Every structure is written in structure tokens, then in C-alpha cells.
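protien #1 (seq + structre)
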Amino acid sequence: MWGELDNGQRKYEAARNALASNVETQIENREVALRVYGHRTISDCRDSELVVPFASSDLAKDILAAVNRIRPKGQTPIDYSLRQALIA
């Protein structure tokens, strides 16, 4: 996620911007949670955390706040994160 796109923007910044511009209109009347990974430690393939549960009181606001706090550290443990999402 620290990688850059062709326009020089960081991948995580592009993802954050895309989410911010769509989250309020796209999650209305849906059950959504937010799990993030690779944000706490540099070399941990189990760095996955459910930061906004399905039962969030103000889902769009809570997701945007959580995404704005995240700073990627480098690892992207997608396999582990997807498996954790199945049991959450």
C-alpha cells in the first residue's frame, strides 16, 4: 500500500479517497464492517484487526474515522485477513 500509482499518489491514499467519496451512498441499508490489515507492525503476517464492527452506531462516520487513522506499515496479509473475516 506504500507503493505509488502512475500519478505519484500513494496506493493507500487513493484507496482512502475512493472510500471517502463513496462510503455514505454505497453502504446505506447494508450490513458492513471494516477489517484492516498491515497497519500496526512492519513484518507481521497476522496484523489484521476488525476496527468497525457490523453493529456500529454511525457506520459511515465510524468507517471514515478509522480509515483516516490508518497508516500502512508494509505487509498485506490478505489470506489471513479474509479467513478472519469469515469468522467475525
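ok now protien #2
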Amino acid sequence: MIELTTAPDRIQDITARALVGERLTASDGYVLIHADATALTQMMAAASELRDRHHGRTVTYSRKVFIPLTNLCRQKCGYCTFARGPRDELAHTMSPDEVLAVARAGQRMGCKEALFSLGERPEETYDFVRDDLARYGHTTTSSYVREMAELVLRETGLQPHINQGLMERDEIVSLREVSASMGMMLEVMSMRLHEKGQAHWNCPGKIPEERLRTMRIAGEEKVAWTTGILIGIGETREERVDSLLAIRDLHDEYRHIQEVIVQNFRVKDDIAMRHKDEPSVFEMLRTIATARLLLGGEMNIQAPPNLTPDAHGMYLLAGINDWGGISPVTKDHINPERPWPNLLDLRETCADAGFTLRERFGIYPEYVREDRGFQGYVPERIREVTAPLADTKGLVSREAEAWKG
């Protein structure tokens, strides 16, 4: 355990080394993640300076629609309200017509990204899911996702981002042809949370090494990948640091981690963890600043604004440079009780803190520009719909930005 009485002096040394580009160690991270209020102010200042050196005073977001292709899942985490059981009247797999209707609504509102989010391999558990898939001409959820992503891309030009959990190489290769990017949260490097009564009990898809294996394959196949950590689900602060460093190691090898999300657990009435405490704003600020200092100024670091509606502006002071996907059309199906911020309000929040809010694609600008070692990540079909809308910075051009809603 870190001796908190010695942390401020050590943090001064650690932040100074981070600002000159030194690679911080796990021990450094353990000190940072335990910072007290005084040291946190220093950490946030250093994290913000590091961010500004690489990203300037521009903060981004992706204008998206959320397509919850199926809310059936082979596992149900203790904090999840998205996954439904077979007897739940809300259990549903979307038809092609439903998928296309959502995508077209997004197209009308100026969205560029179609986020496909779904339960992991439900056909392994539920007979009726296999029946649904057969009705649509498929035997696996993954192949159905592939067809729906291709449909949306072809008919609307929205660029799919795929979140479907663990994947094998053949699935990643197939989906790469019709998606701008893919993603899966690492969440936490802890097998302890797989014990009975913990957040990941009976969740084989949340085993850290299995998730890292999928992410490693994505790197080998040059897939721009979104990942991150979920805080407040029973992990220790040290485990958060271990998780961030595992992500850093993967990115060092493959250069494919396009963003790291720091997401806070929020209590919901219908989850097993409904009596757990939520992480405070200060806990989020401490973790965001630690992530920035450990991962460096170049990394894109995101925190969802709708999960902290009254204080998300503070995240700008802790080192984030992105707000993630925000939809003027669909709710956040993972956190349905938390509405997205109005984009005009979010722009004002950014301006008050001295930032300019800009729209990006589902794939980050450095991958669009193909500079600084990020060549070869954009499939040709995605480039065809991205290039006419992109500016020289790899962001959505001012002319293509849509600010209503």
C-alpha cells in the first residue's frame, strides 16, 4: 500500500518526469492513483499540460446512432442493465428493417458513426436466439453483425463501429472490411472480480487475458480499437493502474488503441450491484489524470459526459481530449437512465473552459490522416465515405458538422 503522507513529494517528481516524456512505471502509477486533494491539483495541471502539447485546446466527439442489435448475452455482469434474459419481454434481436430505420434516422441528423452494441455470443446459450438468426439466414451473431454493418454502410454511408465482445481472428478479419473501428472495454485486470458475489461472477467473456487476446489479434490485423477501464465495480486502485498499463503495452506493440475510456459505474435499480457505492467525481478526476500521465500526451482519453451530468466539465481539467459518441437520435442503451448532453450545451461547456468542440469520425483523426505510424488502418470502403467529409486534420470538416440537436 502507498504511504499517502509521502505521496505529494513523489507526485511532484513523477509529474515532472511525465512532462519530459519519461515512461512511468507501475510504482509511479500506484502513487498517482492514491493522490490526496492537494496532490490531485498538481496531477491535473500536469495531465492537462501533457494533453495540450499533443492535442491543443480541441476536444472531440463522434456524432452517432446507437444500434443495440441484440440485448441477449451469454453472461450478465453485476452492473449491467443492457443484457436481458429469455423470459424478459424486452429481450430483442433487431431485424434488418429496424437496423436500417435507425441508421437512416441518424443519417438525417448528420451522424457519421453507427455504433453496433450487442450481447456476447447469445446463440451459445439461448435456443430462440439461434432461431432468430436462422430466420435472418445466419448461424452466428457475428455473421449477422457483419451483414448489418455492410447494410448500414452501403445504404446510409454511416461508418460502423463494432462492439461485440470476444472475437476470433476470422471474425475480426471479416468485420474489418465493413467497419471503421471496433472496440471492447478491458474493464479491469482482476480475476478476483470473477469470484462468487463479485461483478464478473460467471462471466467467461470478462476474463482479462481473453479480452487482451482479442485486442492483440485486432492489433495484428490493424484494426483501430477502442478500449478502457470501468471504475467502481469492486476493483482496487492498483488494479486500475495495472489495467491501464496492460493497454499501454498493447499499444506500444501495435499502435492500434485509438482511445482509452475512463468510465464510472452508475447504480441502476435493476442490477445486482444496485446497493454498491458509485465512484465520486474526485475518484474520476484522479483516475483520468493518472491515465493521462501513464499513457502519455498522444493517447486519446475519453470520459462519458452523460454519466456525470453536473460535473463532466471538470474532466477537461484532468486531461481528457474526447467525449466519445453522442447521439441526437438514440439513447445510451448501456446507461438508458442517463441522457446525452445537448451538443450546443456541450460546446458551451468546452468554450467556458477554453476549448473548441469538434466532430470526429468513429475512427480517430490520426488514423484518417495516416501519419505518425498510423498507416493502413482505414479499409477502402470506409475511406470512400470518410474522405469527402474530412478536413486536413482528419476531423469532420466544418461544412459537414451538424450542430442542431
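DSSP finds 13 helices and nine strands in the chain.
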